Amino acid sequence: MNRRVLALSVLVLGAGVAIAWADTRPGWDDTGITAFAVLITAALGALLRVPPWLAAILVAGPLLAAELSNGTGVLLAIPFALIGAYAGAFFRRAIQRS
Fold first, then answer.
1. Which of the 8 DSSP states describes residue 94?
2. Which structural domain range is residue 28 located in?
3. 55, 51, 56: which is closest to 76 by C-alpha?
């Protein structure tokens, strides 16, 4: 893994931590915004050349670590992160081909 991908991976992880932090705030109760943030962040990570599987882990992992003890509903973050990451990778390849 080169330094650029490593630096971008750290940024994606930071965004995942920020999403998890916002989701754990006492007044926060908007699952749709959290799901959209996970989807878009994973897509941007993969679009910027972070491997899609890694982008999904880096975005959804902190949310799972923070919220899994509150119920299994947070497991839905995994498909949102995977869909976003692989969509970002698809668009990156499509852009490169054109």
1. H
2. 3-97
3. 56
